[in-house]
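Protein modeling request. Please complete all fields; requests missing the sequence field cannot be processed.
Requester role: graduate student
Desired output: 3D structure, token encoding
Chains: 1
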Amino acid sequence: MARKLLITVILILAGLLAWLLFYWDPAAVETGPAGSDHQRLELAAPPAGGDFVLDSTSGPLDLADLRGRVVLIYFGYTWCPDICPTNLVLIANALRMLTPEEQERVQVLFVSVDPERDSTRRVAEYSGYFHPRILGLTGTPERIAEVARLYGAAYRRTELPDSALGYVVDHSAYSYVVDPKGRLVRTLDHATPSAEIAAVIREQLGAASPVRGSAR
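Delivered output (216 residues):
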């Protein structure tokens, strides 16, 4: 059953990826499809940034261990119908614009705001589908709330009693750029074009020396 569900999710995401690449209009995606209960929220507070520890399939991941790399942080969840796939596709395309050497110096963190449904395995499979440099993270509700507070990320659970999903999680859709010294240097808007994301990454890479190894 779990394998069948995973295959179904992959097929759905593959279709969505094709649609995003060939038919999607970024300007049209703001708060979800017309009539949708899924909303994109604004920042809860001005983002300050800071180190944190959350869980991956390989164990705890400490942001401080990624010094020397450019880190992009995005908050979302695997059941997100539209906003998360949109931004993750754009981020993945930006990574593909980088050279292999540049990619080794970049790590994207996808932080789930739905720990009830997003296990470490599920969030890893979901994020890895978009690009191998995107690492899925989760944790307890309290730890996720603390990390979200550091970055001003907003989210709230909206019940859907007539839906098989049960609920959705409305959330802000910004990408946070952390420089190789661990400082939050940019907050990118929802649906920032891939070329712009790649340019921001390269700008930050230019200020740091290459490092060996990978967080994956």
